[in-house]
Structures are given as structure tokens and as C-alpha cells.
Amino acid sequence: MVMTLTAVMIGGVLLTFALIVIRLSDRTPTLPDEVDLPDGASALAVTIGANWYAVVTDDNRILIFDKTTGKLRQSVSLDPDTQD
């Protein structure tokens, strides 16, 4: 009975580990092949959400795009002179 319980516990640990690996390996974020930024702007950073992605540009703006259509949802200007 101890041997059976040991085998079941080892199988359970292996199954749990396999499920965690499978679940975490399927989290690859997707971005479009090309992002249309305004003229003169270049990307410094990208953040991906559930149905949007944001691009931080070198001209102190955050551009939020729709992930399915690729259209610009919102533009947020950052004031470079403001310090917290």
C-alpha cells in the first residue's frame, strides 16, 4: 500500500509540473508586424495588454493602440519638466 501511494504521489507531482510548464509556455505575446507611429517618432518601450498595446516614444508620448485593428486609441503626452 505504501508503494502504491508513493507511485501515485510521484505521478501527481510529475503531472502537476507538466501542466505548469505547458500552461506557462503558451504565453507568448503577439504584436503586429508593423506599427504605424507618427512622423519623427521612434519607439523606446512597448507594453502589451489584453486587447491593446502601448508604445512609449522618444518625443515623450504614450500611444495606445487597439490590438485587433491596429488603430490608435489614445495618445498621452508626458510633460518632461514635471518631477515627482
Note the topology.
Layout: H1 2-25, E1 43-48, E2 52-57, E3 61-66, E4 72-77
Antiparallel strand pairs: 1-2, 2-3, 3-4
Short structural description:
InterPro entries: DUF6476 (IPR045519), Quinoprotein_ADH-like_sf (IPR011047). This protein is of the alpha+beta class and 84 residues long.
Write up what this structure looks like.
This protein has 84 residues and is of the alpha+beta class. The chain contains 1 helix and 4 strands, in the order αββββ. 29% of the residues lie in helices and 29% in strands. The relative contact order is 0.12. The chain has a 4-stranded antiparallel beta sheet with strand order 1-2-3-4, with no helix packed on it. It has one domain (2-26, 41-77): Thrombin, subunit H, CATH 2.40.10.
* CATH topology title: Thrombin, subunit H
Taking the alpha carbons of the first and last residues, their distance comes to: 65 Å
> What is the N-to-C succession of helices and strands?
HEEEE
Largest sheet: 4 strands, antiparallel
Shape: elongated
Second CATH tier, the architecture: Beta Barrel
Tally of structural domains: 1
Q: What is the CA-atom radius of gyration, in angstroms?
A: 23 Å
> What is the C-level CATH assignment?
Mainly Beta
Q: What fraction strand? A: 25-35%
Biggest sheet, spatial arrangement of strands: 1-2-3-4
Q: Give the fraction of residues assigned to helices.
A: 25-40%
The tally of strands reads 4
Structural class: alpha+beta
